[in-house]
Amino acid sequence: VAHAADLIDIRDRLEGKLTPPATDQECLGFMRAAGFDLSVAAERLQATWAWRQEQDIEGKMMDAKLVAFERELRRVLLYDFLGVDKHGRPLLVERVGAWDAQAVILAAEPLERFVTLHAMACETLRRFPRPAGTKDVRGTVLVLDLQGFGLRLICRQLLQTLTALNEVDSAHYPDTLAHIFVVNAPVVVSVLINAVARFIDPTTLTKLSISSDVPQEMVDILGAACLPTELHGTRCNVFPYDLLAGPASFFN
Predict the structure, then answer these.
(1) What is the per-residue pLDDT across 8-24, written as a single tens digit (0 to 9) for each?
(2) How far is CA 117 from CA 54, 69, 86, 110, 125, in A?
(3) Fold of 77-231
(4) pTM for this structure?
(5) What is the CA radius of gyration of the chain?
(6) The CATH number of 4-55 is which of 3.90.1570, 3.40.630, 1.10.8, 3.30.420?
(7) DSSP three-state, residue 89
(8) Which DSSP category does 197 fall into?
(9) Which residues, 6 or more positions from 21, have their beta carbon under 8 angstroms from its beta carbon?
(10) Could you read off the pLDDT of 139-156 as tens digits, one per residue?
C-alpha cells in the first residue's frame, strides 16, 4: 500500500484523539493536502474533527428541516447527486451557467446557514454508497455546466459567498475531487483560469478539464449511463436539467 509507513505514523500521532477514527483515505487526503508534512496533516485532521463536533454535523444530517432546506437549495444552485460513474465514484452535476444570481445571493443569507447546507452537500458525497470493489473509495467527480454563463454571475457578493464555501472545502474536505469537468465554457472562462493558474494548486489543475462543449472524453471516462442526455449521456428527465423531476434522495 502506498504511503503505508506514513499511515502508521499519522495513526500513532492521532491515537485516541479522533472519534470515530479517520479512515485511511481521509488520512491520505489530509496528508496530500499538507504536502505529506505529517505534523500539519495531524493538526488539520484534529481541527476538522473538532469542527465537525462544534457544528454538530451528524445531528444536522439527521435534521429534517435542514435536509429539506438543502434539497431546496439544489433548486437554486441547480445541482444534484446523480449516483456514481462507471468507476463507482459519486457524481455531482451543477448548472452554474443557468444560475439566477440574485436568487443565489438571497439564498446565501444568512451566510452561516448557507455554509452549513454546503457542508451537508459535502457530507452527502463523503457518505455516498459505492459499489463493492471500487478502487477509488474517496474521489468524487464534479461536472460544472456553464451553458448561459455571463457577466451577471461576476459580482462581488457572489464571489464573497463562493469564497466562504471554498474555505470549508479546503479546510475540511481536502483532496476529495478526482475530476472536475467544466463544460460549455465560454472563452472568457478559459482566459480567467489561465490568468489565475499560477495561484491554483498544481494537483487541482491536473484534475481540471475545461471545454467549450461537452467532450466525448468526459462521457468515455464517466460512462454514458450516469449522465443526462444534456451531457451526452443516456439518462432522460434528470434534475437539474428537468426541473419537474426533482432532486434525488439518498439518505432521507
Answers:
(1) 999 999 999 999 999 99
(2) 15, 7, 28, 11, 13
(3) Phosphatidylinositol Transfer Protein Sec14p (3.40.525)
(4) 0.92
(5) 18
(6) 1.10.8
(7) coil
(8) G
(9) 11, 14
(10) 999 999 999 998 888 888
